[in-house]
Write a structure and sequence with these properties.
3-stranded antiparallel beta sheet, two-stranded antiparallel sheet, elongated, Double Stranded RNA Binding Domain
Length: 90
């Protein structure tokens, strides 16, 4: 049986990092996105192998989807020395 785990890649100042929400402690980092993707796949396999060797139960994936929302950031305006924020709608 094959199981799918969602991984998240984030860009840092000098590298990329990845983690798996359903596998706490499972993470990887690399210089490029492609390298990080390869390393997180290996990390997932290694993490699960370690759990099996330790007699731990393999978590069923619960993270189903990732996505993006596009928003327009709030803009501060000053009117008679009062700062207000415009409402953000998503």
């Amino acid at each position: 049986m094959r199981v799918k785990y969602l991984y998240i890649i984030e860009q840092g100042k000098n590298n990329y990092s990845a983690y798996v929400p359903d596998l706490p402690g499972c993470a990887a980092a690399g210089k490029t996105k492609a390298e990080t993707e390869k390393l997180i796949k290996e990390a997932i396999e290694f993490h699960i192998e370690g759990m099996i060797l330790n007699g731990e139960k393999i978590p069923v994936p619960t993270t189903m989807k990732s996505g993006y929302f596009s928003i327009k950031p709030a803009v501060k305006s000053t009117s008679k020395n009062k700062q207000t924020r415009k409402r953000i709608t998503v």
